[in-house]
Every structure is written in structure tokens, then in C-alpha cells.
Amino acid sequence: MTKNIEWLGHASFRITSKDGKVIYIDPWKLKTKKKADLVLITHDHYDHLSPEDVEKIAKSETEIVTTPDGAAKLKGKVKTVKPGDKIKAAGFEIQVIPAYNTKADRQGFHPQDKNWVGYIVTVDGVRIYHMGDTDLIPEMTNLKPEVALIPCGGTYTMDWKEAVNAAQKIAPKVLIPMHWGDIVGSRQDAQNISKLYMGEVKILEIVSD
For residue 21, what are the CA distances in angstroms to 36, 56, 77, 89, 124? Predict the structure, then answer.
């Protein structure tokens, strides 16, 4: 279920479908130049929206999905979305989920009124939920993803304890910790989740090719 999901560090992932289509989510600090069919950007913070990295992997037909405040920074076939949207891009069904902070000491980082997002993208019949930069929010309930990529670094997003609580409510079959190992968060945070979450947890190693 997760063999086609590669972690590129921080909140950056590459997903490859059985027919060879390539999806990047929040590409940042990329060492690879493997071209993208689809790029999903959750919000316009520099560690999630990097025009230089998108340019590395874009080809003329690459579809780029982002929030309106990020669109002006990008070139090519750019499509803007808002929370609640359901779209199809590069042949993939995409559900757009809100992503924001609820904790008082974090609300300045990712305010709800920014309309920043996470995505559920369906790849080969598997619903993969990249949560973006977020706390536990009511909109996460009843999403039923098979795989969830969950932030756990704290400071700007959920810490590992909050991530476990969120995961128990979302109940994915496979949970992949992210947003650790760069800027904030550590492998120990990911390992703590692995010890406490009732389902399967996969701690990925960074892929650089």
C-alpha cells in the first residue's frame, strides 16, 4: 500500500502510480530531478512552496495545484483550490481538506482564515492524505483515508502526542510521520508515534534520487 510513497524530507513526498505517473507534494530541497505529472502545494510557506524546486521537476504538461496566495509564485499549468474543493488533475481525484492551527500559541503560524490545505489524493484506488501544516481539526473526521502523512514536529504543527490523538480519530490503515528531521522534530518523535498508535506506522527514510 505504501511502496509507491517516497519521503523526500520534511513534508515533501513523491508518489508514483502503477502506470508511472509521478506526484510530488510540497517539494523542497530536492536532490532529484525526476519529472512530475502533478505537483500539490499545501500553502505558501517557503518550506512547502519552493518555486525553485517546482521548476526542477516541472515539464510543460505538469499540473500544479496550490492555494491562491501561492499561485503568483509559480509558472506553468497552475490550478488554485480552497478547502472543500474536489477536483481532478493529471488524472487523479483530489479532495482538498482544511489545514490550520487551533492551539493558541500556534494560530499565528497557520490561521484558519488563510484557507491553507491538505490533500487526499487517490492513487491506484488508495486514498492518501497529506495533512499539510495543521493541528487536529474537526474537518479531519470521517475522511477514511487508507494512508495518512501526519506532521509531528511540534512548534508549528501537532507534536507527537497530538499526532497520535489525531491518528486515532482518523484511523488510517498506515500512518507515516512527517515534518520532522528539519527545522523542528526528531526521529524520536516519529518513534514515539510508532509505539503508541494502534495501527501500522511506517517511519520512512529520505530518498534523494
Answer: 8, 17, 16, 12, 11
Three-class secondary structure assignment of 14-78: EEECCCCCEEEECCCCCCCCCCCCEEECCCCCCCCCCHHHHHHHCCCCCEEEECHHHHCCCCCEE
CATH number at residue 176: 3.60.15.10
| pLDDT score for 105 | 86
Grid coordinates standing for 168? 486515532
Q: Are 177 and 161 in contact (CB under 8 A)?
A: no
**Is 64 part of any domain?**
yes
User: Do residues 11 and 26 touch, judged by C-beta distance below 8 A?
Assistant: yes
Give the per-residue pLDDT at 15. 98
Low-confidence ranges of the chain (pLDDT < 70): none
C-alpha 189, offset from chain centre: 18
Q: How many independent structural domains does the chain possess?
A: 1
Q: What pLDDT sits at residue 179?
A: 96
Residue 69 · residue 44 · CB < 8 Å: yes
Instruction: Give pLDDT, residue 141.
Output: 87
Helix (H) or strand (E) holding 97: strand 92-98
First to last CA, the chain: 21
Q: What is the pLDDT of residues 114-153, one digit of tens each?
A: 999 999 999 999 999 999 999 999 999 889 999 999 999 9
Has residue 65 been placed in a domain? yes
